[in-house]
Amino acid sequence: MADPVSRPEYPGASTPPHSPQLPQGRQPSLRGSTPIAKKESSARYGTEDPGSDAHYKRHEQEFRRYIVGPLPKHLFVNFLPKPSEPLPARPPYVGNLSGLLGSGTDEKILYPHIHKQVNPYVRPGFELSITDNPKDARPKGSLHPDLMIYPQGAVPQKDLVASARLEYSEIYIEVKGSVSDDPFRDLNPHRQNRESHQFLKEGGNHVKTRGQLIAYAAYACETQHRHCYFSVLICHHKARIIRWDRAGALVSESFDCSDAEGIEFLGDFIWRYTHASPLDRGWDPTVLVSSEEDIEAFSKKTVLEPWYDPKYVVTLLVWPRGDDDQTNGEFHEYLVSRPVVSPISMAGRGTRGFWALSKKDGSIVFVKDTYRVIHRDSNCEGDTLKTLLHHNVQNIPEVHAHGDVPDGNHGFQHTWTQHYVDEYYCGGDSPIVPYVHYRLVSKTVGPSLAHAPQTSRELITYTQHAFQGLFRFDGSSCPNELILCSLVTALSDAYTFCDLMHRDVSVGNIIIDRVTNKGVLIDWEMAYKVDRDIGARTPYRSGTWQFMANELLREPKTPHLPYHDIESFFWVVFYATVLWFAPKMDNESVIELIHDLFDYYRLDPREGLTGGRLKHEALLNDKRVASTCLPPTSILYAWLKKFRYLCFKLDTDIFDRPSVEETFKIFNEAWQTILENRSFTNENRFKRKALTINSRMPDAIPIATRQSGSFPPRADSIPPPTSLPTHRLIEASDLRGIKYPSTAPVLSNPLKRQHEPDEYELRSQDSGNRSELSNDAGPSRSQAQTQSLRNTCSEHSATDNCDRETPTNGSGGVTVSSRPKSRMPMGKGKARAL
């Protein structure tokens, strides 16, 4: 097939300008199911049922800003380029939906009519099935589109009859009984002010319907190896086509299927889709069918047994980037089966994690499959890790290979949604950024913090290792038996030697290296390069919602500072304590605390999703710490009490903070003092039974342990539940004005066609003038102020409550073309403002 689409160039001068040709004669894997992560391997942090109205609502609130439309319907046929060989003649017109009852018909009556009119356009080799079966025996909360197109024979007939199987679908069709159920509003052709057009209809049913559409697409992309997905919405006789990718969704204008033109257009799209190549249908061509020998080799690795399923063993290709090319330009091949983690959100990076077997040397590695953000400050995680290793930063993972994922047409897989944000018919107000598909292979393997610590002292020790990685400490201050020092080392070293903030400290991003028995801080994808002379200039929030600092949640435009990473460690330990080390808390109390303290959010009309209010209140006194019912002699109780107070001081005394270096030292010394006090009791981990965090996976709290000698799952990028803002929350409203540098892939317009000059096409628009984002540095700090915090912390006893109000601070944050005062100043001295 001729290449009808302009592809992004590969970044970096040391790499070829185009991706390599994929291996010839190898069959891509089009199996409909990349299963979701097994329940104990998937640390879902939320408390809602998928398929519930609340779940749909949160899906919608998370994703609504990434919906672009209405686009001319002809574009969606152009998204499926004509093959080099002429298409077979399309079946003749057989009828339309004009004979249906009036608007308001029960949607179930529409299913056979739609099936009758659309099915003739489905190419042999595919089948259209009505899949909304009232006798579906699957558990409550399952996702049930009304009709779906499957590859013929992909789903056993008994399963097709019994239930909807989104994991095998090519396209789903959702049906509503009334035109008024359409959750989108087309542009009035006589309207002059297109930018003020509100494409999304408001109201409970419209929000729920959008949430349904998003949830279905998210699940399909979660369980399939795809770079995009298509779906159809039919509201009585009006239809729309939607194209989904990790940047957002492109929605067509509605078209009328009650006449010949409309139903023939829908039929033409279906006909073109079912004749398109797997790549153009959205499949990832770098996921290949594995041979019987490969499957047998994978099955023999006993440590991989928990993630082995013979039906799902596939080969992932990784094209090495730059200096990683140790194979003379050849692909690295890795065998994978069930993922350790899988994305449950449609928005964002869609990160999967796999335990993998290297076909080259038989070693066990970890593969992170994700979509990386492209903007002027972005960097590949593999390059970031190499920089950290070059500066001898401790307690970080070692890279085996990494690189962007080829598309099979001498380009690389990237999102398309961002190309249409500024088109005149879309209004231009969606904060969408581009993503490129990327894979990172790590040699460092071990269980995550969600699985490894068996005692409360181990929990505190492992997390200190990660904390120390952000700032350099004298290793001699850490007793050899205390493993926790290494995580702190990773965080501290990165800031000291590389001017990097991690920005995503979470339970899933701390693993325990079984070789060194140290905590390792992983997932440096969102690490941000600090310019200490300019000040804080982070263009967006990022992080795992439950563990983000309260101020970032309460005020989304607040620049991300190292102090926020420090606070995240408190929430990581608090969360772990509640789940695994507080046996006196009943399940109801645990769910209530997680929901209120970690999941809390609200939708602000101007700021978007905000939260953190209850986190802020929890720092004011020890009531939340006391709610864990831990005895005062517990080492965890002492740690939580001390660090609650230290975080409270950082959160409230924003104009009286020590430097970052001093702050790291204060926290590390407090950590060390508690660990060295042998009078504290050391609690054993316990398994909390019959507690459902996510109904798709009962008992999904990540508390399972493995037998010695096996590898518990490592959560390389464990996503939060879809009830949260995104897998890694990315606020991109300010990124639309940023011009991408030459070092990033040039994401050209995907519709510069070499074919079909007679059809409606678009050209890419330059975004014009660009602005830098920056903030002024904060005020300076005296040595007396640093000593004041030290003295206050040392005087703080186990009985202090520190009930006081948070001082009112001025507004501020990152804005385009301005230099506002940051409301989170940093101390002077060695630590200049970020």
Automatic annotation (TrEMBL):
SUPFAM superfamilies: Protein kinase-like (PK-like). Residues 21-32, 765-774, 780-796 have a biased composition (Polar residues). It comes from the Eukaryota. Residues 753-764, 797-806 have a biased composition (Basic and acidic residues). Residues 341-675 form the Protein kinase domain. GO terms for molecular function: ATP binding; protein kinase activity. This is Protein kinase domain-containing protein. It comes from Meripilus lineatus.
